[in-house]
Amino acid sequence: MKNFYNRVSNRNRQSRGPQKSSIPFRLNFLFIIVALLFAALIGQLAYLQVIHGAQFKAVVNQTDTTIETTNVQRGMIYDSNGKVLVGNQAHQAIAYTKGVNVLSTDMYTIANRLGKYLTVSTSSLTPRQSIDYYLTNTKNLAAVEKKIPNIKQYSTTERYNKALSYLENDSSFKLTATQKNAAEIFAKMSGAYALSTTYIKDSNVSSQEIAQIGEHLSEMPGIKVSTSWSRNYPNGTSIKSIIGTVSSEKTGLPSDEINQLLAQGYSRNDSVGQSYLEKEYESVLRGTKAEKQVEVAGNNTITKEVKKYGGQKGDNLQLTINSTFQSQLQKLVRSAESNAGGYSTGTYAVVMNPNTGAVIGIAGVDRNPSTGKLTDNALGTINSDIVMGSVVKGAMVSGALMSGVITPENNTLTDEVINVGGVKKSSWFNHSGSANISVDAPTALEVSSNSYMMQLAMKEAGFKYSAGAALNMSTKAFSIERGYFNQFGLGVKTGIDLPGESTGLEGSSSRTNIGSALDLSFGNYDAYTTMQVAQYMSTVANGGTRIAPHVVQAIRGTTSDGKLGTVKSTVTPKVLNTIDMTAAEKKLVKEGLYDVVHGTNTYKTGAELASISPGISAKTGTAETYYKGHSTVTLSLASYAPSNDPQVVVALAMPNLSTSDEDNNMKLAKQIYSAYWKTVQSTSTLTNPTKATTAGSAQNTAG
């Protein structure tokens, strides 16, 4: 039996053949798979860390790290002596910083809680904002949806829009006063984006509101008691019209510039300069926001806050304007206008340094002739176009000298009635022709001869005048006269650092209006601004250099105690052009302007100005104008002082006065000069103040 089993066993072994183990092959296969996986892992790690490590790290940082910004105080505006013209008034405020991925329902809850303690104005709440607030409550949304047929067939967005449309057409839909208050808060919160801060109420927050909100801050995530600022004017608002305005938190960024400003780092509810200096120097005044780096975990909770930059208050502007004098100037202008008769529409005055272009005072008042209401408008000096009258004659004589039609040695003409084709034009003192006199260039300015200027215009155009003959003069007369006027600043922009200035207003230059070329020569055709007149007289006063007026003197920082800091940059005089006149030609014009006030001719026009000390040189102007069919006069004046060493220019314009007010310009000029020497500059600083009053025209030798 034993042998039997052995034989069977041997046969079985022989039938199966030799035995080999399968374990090593399987292990090898597994090792190969694991090796490939490790190789893939190492390759992926190399891809992530070595090849694209920096890129993915940046993506991770961008995703998990966000910068939260906080507004800083706007830079202030000071006068030439360091007095605050525009400051910042602090207000207690209630603000909201929106978290990451905050739901509308969360803000709805916070708005309702905050509304219990804080009352806000709902005047700007729109119907859409009211409905959005109402429908954020899921119960309200469900109730409205039940009223809409087949609502379930629509998507979530479509269902909301259907509910929105339903309430917009439901005349019975109305929020209670409490709901409106909460809806306004909700609307402001909804307008913020992640980690941005918006004001819920930026002024007039009561002590009770502060206390109650402070007690419940933990119940209202993102709500905090903060500080806001608004512009104030501690030295009066007379200068406000040229300083401009700043948008409020309520109005936010201007709609027509919003995309551009957002790209520059503004938030939608930031304040920004809207006009004039506030807008022109926005980049200087805005400052740099404080920055806080906020790390956010995967569940959108803030895990870490790191202060990266404390922010910097905006830099300050220091103006060339003297605030004390500016206040006096505005009062004088307003008083002159309030006493004006006829159909007066305003009074405007500019006081500036002729050697630097620095504007020392700029004032204006508009008047409604129908109601007599006065409105401060200093900007009227740069954007109100006025037919100025004879004040331009200094430029006309200068142009004639430059063109060569008269010379310092040969400039005498006869003042006579100019008769062109039966149309007669004359000087104010020689309407009938009975006072025909010989006048040279200085005398023509002294007595304000219209006839002299018309003859110059015809000579410049190459037209030979014959009494009674038609005025077949070329229309190039207009461009010739205007070309010389432009060199002095009349009829072109002055280049002042304020936006919106006018170039003036030109009358028609057509053949049918050729007679107006004669009117242009004595200032009774084209219209100019008061600032242009000031620049023109400054150009004469400083010897022939046209300088751009400016109201900003310097950009300055802030000291540690909040006061005016060091100068960061200054505004240097900007030369626009120089007048190509010889010293003798300039002397001739200056003699005439001096004689307007101090001359001996019976017909001199500025006798009333002779009492001003130090003595001035000037050109008065009277234009025959009309207001709604009524005959009026427009008075102007351009002057500088002292005559022998010009330090200040005064220019003014008073349109549409009664004909009985023909000396109002000189009365106002005397008051302005008196205020200037008392307030801005002492006569003790002058080299020879008495000489300026007593010297004759011969002293005007400066080129």
UniProtKB/TrEMBL annotation:
Under which EC number(s) is this enzyme classified? 2.4.1.129
Gene3D superfamilies in alphabetical order: DD-peptidase/beta-lactamase superfamily, Penicillin-binding protein 2a (Domain 2), Penicillin-binding protein, N-terminal non-catalytic domain, head sub-domain
* Record membrane topology: Single-pass membrane protein
Q: Which residues form the Penicillin-binding protein transpeptidase domain?
A: 348-672
Is Transmembrane helix among this UniProt entry's keywords? Answer: yes
Subcellular compartments: Cell membrane
Write out the GO biological process terms.
Answer: cell division; cell wall organization; peptidoglycan biosynthetic process; regulation of cell shape
Record's keyword terms, sorted: Cell cycle, Cell division, Cell membrane, Cell shape, Cell wall biogenesis/degradation, Glycosyltransferase, Membrane, Peptidoglycan synthesis, Transferase, Transmembrane, Transmembrane helix
The Penicillin-binding protein dimerisation domain covers which part of the protein? 70-306
Please provide, alphabetically and separated by semicolons, the GO molecular function terms listed in this UniProt record: glycosyltransferase activity; penicillin binding; peptidoglycan L,D-transpeptidase activity
Q: Which GO terms describe its cellular component?
A: plasma membrane
Membership in a protein family:
Belongs to the transpeptidase family.
Under which name does UniProt file this protein?
Answer: Cell division protein FtsI [Peptidoglycan synthetase]
